[in-house]
Amino acid sequence: MKINLKQNSWAWFQHRKNFVNASEIGTIMGLNPYETKEDLIKKKLFGSSFISNPAMEHGKKTEPKANLFFSVKTKRNYKPAVFTRDIFSASLDGYHAESETMLEIKCPLDKNSSSWKDFFEKDIIPSYYWAQIQCGLFCSESKSAFFLVYFNPQEHYLQEVFLKSSFIEEMKIKAQEYQKILQQYQTLMKAEKKIKDDKHKTKYK
Fold first, then answer.
1. Residue 135 and residue 22 in contact, taking contact as beta carbons nearer than 8 Å
2. Would you put residue 100 in left (φ > 0), alpha (ψ -120 to 50) or beta?
3. Looking only at Cα atoms, what is the longest distance across the chain?
4. pLDDT tens digit string along 51-101?
5. b/e for 123-132, b at 16 or more Cβ within 10 A?
6. pLDDT value at position 9?
7. What would the 3-class secondary structure string for the chain be?
8. Residue 173: its pLDDT value, please?
9. Which range of residues forms the domain containing residue 139?
10. pLDDT digits (tens, 9 = 90+) for 28-57
11. Which residues form the YqaJ viral recombinase domain (predicted)?
12. Which residue did the predictor score with more confidence, 201 or 37?
């Protein structure tokens, strides 16, 4: 289901708290070498102090250019969109309703980064990005996804990705397991807070 939300808005951040998000799937499935499931759970419980870094700032600045480039190239207006399905949510860099296709954009700061080596040498999408795309396909029910790695109009790389049903089934199982653990910790934290509050009230009676 398509949701009327502006990405990076306050309402969007609040929305993400209630779902398993596409960008988290790689971590939940054990495919993200930069974040563990435990890291993600702590982030969900306590929030994140992380603000940004040069690579993220470069991506934010370059993604609109990449979207415009691809939209003009394909003669399709790919618009950012948010979709939900079951317990999942996906914030797409672009969605084209008429063709039922989605767009996922990455704008690496450094082409020589080790995380991109297999992509440029063997056309293998980093597994955590591929997992993100799979969740996007599932949520939006798109026929296919275009994975665009963009540097500039002269240098860009494109792959078309299709839904893999076996991965989706595994994703559902792993996400439910993750949610169960997260909810257990959330319940524990609420109980601990109640005990602390009750002690505080008793002390000052």
1. yes
2. left
3. 72
4. 789 999 999 999 999 999 999 999 999 999 999 999 999 999 999 999 999
5. eebbebbbbb
6. 96
7. CEECCCCCCHHHHHHHCCCEEHHHHHHHCCCCCCCCHHHHHHHHHHCCCCCCCHHHHHHHHHHHHHHHHHHHHHCCCCEEEEEEECCEEEEEEEEECCCCEEEEEECCCCCCCHHHHHHHHHCCCCHHHHHHHHHHHHHHCCCEEEEEEEEECCEEEEEEECCCHHHHHHHHHHHHHHHHHHHHHHHHHHHHHHHHHHHHHHHCC
8. 99
9. 2-203
10. 999 999 999 999 999 999 988 777 899 999
11. 12-141
12. 37
Percentage of the chain exceeding pLDDT 70? 97
Domain count, the chain: 1
Q: What is the rounded distance in angstroms from the CA atom of residue 47 to the CA atom of residue 2?
A: 26
For residue 182, which amino acid is it? L
Report whether pLDDT(204) > 70. Answer: no
Q: How far apart are CA 92 and CA 167, in angstroms?
A: 19
- Residue 54 belongs to domain with CATH number: 3.90.320.10
Question: Nearest Cα to 6, choosing from 66, 86, 91?
Answer: 91
